[in-house]
Amino acid sequence: MAKKDLFKIKIRYNKDIKRKGIRKMNKHIEKAKELRNATPMVHNCAQTIMEVYADDLGINKELANHLGCNFGGGMKCGSVCGAITSGLMILGAKGIDSPAKVNQFIKTISNNHHGLINCADLLKENAKNGGQKKPHCDGMIQEVIELIDQMEKEND
User: Fold this and answer.
1) What is the reported pTM?
2) Which of 44, 79, 81, 108 is in the most buried spot, having the most CB atoms within 10 Å?
3) Do residues 116 and 128 lie in contact, with contact meaning Cβ atoms separated by under 8 Å?
4) Residue from 50, 89, 74 nearest 123 by CA
5) What pLDDT, in 10s, does the model give residues 16-30?
6) At a CB cut-off of 8 Å and minimum separation 6, what does 72 contact?
7) Among 148, 144, 5, which Cα is nearest to 72's?
8) 49-86 pLDDT tens trace
9) Phi, psi of 144, rounded to the nearest 5 degrees
């Protein structure tokens, strides 16, 4: 197959994705899934997000993991979700730090979860609805990554 034909296929594929509302998985989400599906899983929610953005921030993965280690599980005590907390750290590191943007970030996530942002409350609500912890936390990680990337695009 000629290079020109491959290019046409790629263009048609991208148009199909847009038309059907299918989104390509972004590199941050792919990396997060890879980290969370590793055996044994050693990354909490905050560490996952920190490591996913480490290269973007110019820090090494080890430092990213150390920065996020105490924020998983809502700072290890059920407080604000570690995915949310690390998301705020990433936004700040990327220069997105206005009170309006920070409040938009928190409000968006809160609205998606019945007003909840604390880890213990989110997990309790999830369990009440028959959910399991890991898929819930993986979903929170993906939601935060998507919101970070969206806000970064809007900020450019």
Assistant:
1) 0.83
2) 81
3) no
4) 74
5) 444 444 455 699 999
6) 44, 45, 46, 47, 82
7) 144
8) 999 999 999 999 999 999 999 999 999 999 999 999 99
9) -65, -45
- Of 3-7, 42-46, 73-77, 99-103, least confident by mean pLDDT is 3-7
Distance CA 55, CA 34 (A): 16
Long-range contacts (CB closer than 8 Å, 24 or more residues apart) made by 98-104: 101/151, 101/155, 104/151
Preceding amide of 40 cis, omega within 30 = yes
What is the DSSP secondary-structure string of the chain? --HHHHHHHHHHHHHHHHHHTPPPPPHHHHHHHHHHTSSS----HHHHHHHHTHHHHT--HHHHHHHHTTTHHIIIII-B-HHHHHHHHHHHHTT---HHHHHHHHHHHHHHTTT--BHHHHHHHHHHTT--HHHHHHHHHHHHHHHHHHHHHHH-
d(CA 10, CA 72): 40
Amino acid at site 98: S
Structure tokens at 16: 């199909």
